[in-house]
Structures are given as structure tokens and as C-alpha cells.
Design a protein that fits this description.
mainly alpha
Length: about 240
């Protein structure tokens, strides 16, 4: 039986949707071709009519995910610029994390370690998704001293993906929520506060400050020794000879 192009396209989308769900929950190794096709309600034999390999499925899943998520990540932020834009973007991304279950709508925390060993085609697909996101977002970021708009957005995405990954890696611990809060706080932190919490605790090897009275110059050892030595003959001179 021959299927129409529309049917094949719909089937392709079903496989991608099933793959994304499994990649997000199980990572690359946990999402076998058999499990993906079963989740899509299809037979394993039909997989190769759509993808040449599991790696090509991952590459296309990444492209589809980054394209689909770019719009909701940036929607409604058109009028924002600078730190306000970065803070809202980061909050929107990090708020996907469910602090009760450890789940998130993002595939990245489950896939980042797999991408370090992935084929070039997979890494290229992810890199292109990042390029598109950064390219669209950097128009909201004026240049800052020491960081171009592109660098600011790349660093923000890196912080968000990394924080989400660490939160999931510590999902059963209170530290998970603290990691997400710390990421948000760093993105909106202002200039260093003079005498702030970073300087409240004394350094381990700091030299104690002396009071003004203790800064008076003490007499030299030589002067003290001389005066003591000079007093002995004076006392002997006052003694009467025997």
C-alpha cells in the first residue's frame, strides 16, 4: 500500500515527537530505535524509511527541538534589552524545572554528555540550533565592556543549560533548587558591593589592624640596650670604696 506524502510527513512527525520524549527522559542510550517506534505506535521496520540511523534521528530531533523552542523562549521579549532581557529569558528557561519531580521540558540536560561523544552531524545540528538562537537574541543586547552581544547570549545559554543539568543531577537533594536560584541571581547581579558579604569574613592569613595608639614608634633595641648598659657604671660610681 502506498501512502501519501501527507501521511508520511505525519508519521515522520510522530517519530520525532516520540524520540524527543524518550531522549528527554532516558538520554541517547536509553532511547533505542525499538522503543522510539513502539512509543510512536509503529513497527521497527518502518524506521529506516524515515532515518538512516539512530544518529540521524538524534540530529533531526535536535534541529526540530531548537527550532520549536526558540519561539516560546523569546516570545514577548521583543521590547526588552540588556540585563532585563537576559533575566527574563533565563527565568523562562529555568522555570521549566519541576522541583518536585526533577522533570523539565528541555532535552539538553539528558543529552549534553551524549553530545560530547556524538557524531559530527549531531554536533553540527546542535551547534546550528545554538547559532540561530543566539543570532536572534543578540539584537536585544547592547555591547558591554568586555563582552559582545554574542558572548553575552552564549554565556547566558551556557549558564542556563548547565544549571538545569546540575539541578537534574542533584534532583533528590535541596541543592537542586539552590543551583537554579544561584543561576538566576548571577544573571541579574549588579556591580560588586563595597564591604559586602564577600569581605565580611576575615581572611585566613590577614594581618590584624593595629589601633592608632599601637602605631607609635617603639624605641629601638639598640637605644634600650645602650641606656641599660650606661646605667650600671653610674650605679657603681655612687658606691663608696671599701
Amino acid at each position: 500500500m502506498r501512502y501519501t506524502a501527507e501521511h508520511k510527513q505525519a508519521t515522520h512527525a510522530r517519530i520525532l515527537a516520540a524520540a524527543e520524549k524518550l531522549f528527554r527522559a532516558e538520554g541517547f542510550s536509553g532511547a533505542s530505535v525499538e522503543r522510539v517506534m513502539r512509543a510512536a505506535g509503529l513497527t521497527v521496520g518502518g524506521f529506516y524509511a524515515h532515518f538512516t540511523s539512530k544518529e540521524s534521528l538524534l540530529a533531526e530531533s535536535l534541529r526540530a527541538f531548537m527550532t520549536a523552542r526558540r519561539t516560546p523562549w523569546l516570545a514577548g521579549l521583543e521590547g526588552m534589552r540588556g540585563p532585563a532581557f537576559l533575566e527574563r529569558f533565563a527565568r523562562r528557561y529555568l522555570d521549566q524545572y519541576d522541583r518536585h519531580t526533577g522533570d523539565t521540558a528541555c532535552m539538553m540536560p539528558s543529552l549534553l554528555s551524549d553530545l560530547t561523544r556524538a557524531a559530527p552531524e549531531v554536533q553540527a545540528a546542535f551547534a546550528q540550533g545554538l547559532e540561530d538562537l543566539v543570532g536572534q537574541a543578540r539584537t536585544h543586547l547592547p555591547a558591554r565592556e568586555g563582552a559582545t552581544p554574542r558572548q553575552q547570549m552564549l554565556a547566558t545559554v551556557t549558564l542556563c543549560f548547565g544549571a538545569m543539568t546540575l539541578a537534574r543531577a542533584t534532583a533528590s537533594q535541596p541543592l537542586a533548587g539552590e543551583i537554579l536560584d544561584a543561576a538566576r541571581a548571577l544573571l541579574v547581579a549588579g556591580a560588586p558591593v563595597e564591604g559586602g558579604s564577600g569581605s565580611e569574613a576575615p581572611r585566613a592569613h590577614a594581618t590584624p589592624r593595629r589601633s592608632p595608639a599601637s602605631r607609635k614608634k617603639a624605641p629601638s633595641r639598640k637605644r634600650r640596650v645602650g641606656s641599660i648598659a650606661g646605667s650600671a657604671p653610674a650605679r657603681r660610681a655612687r658606691k663608696k670604696p671599701l
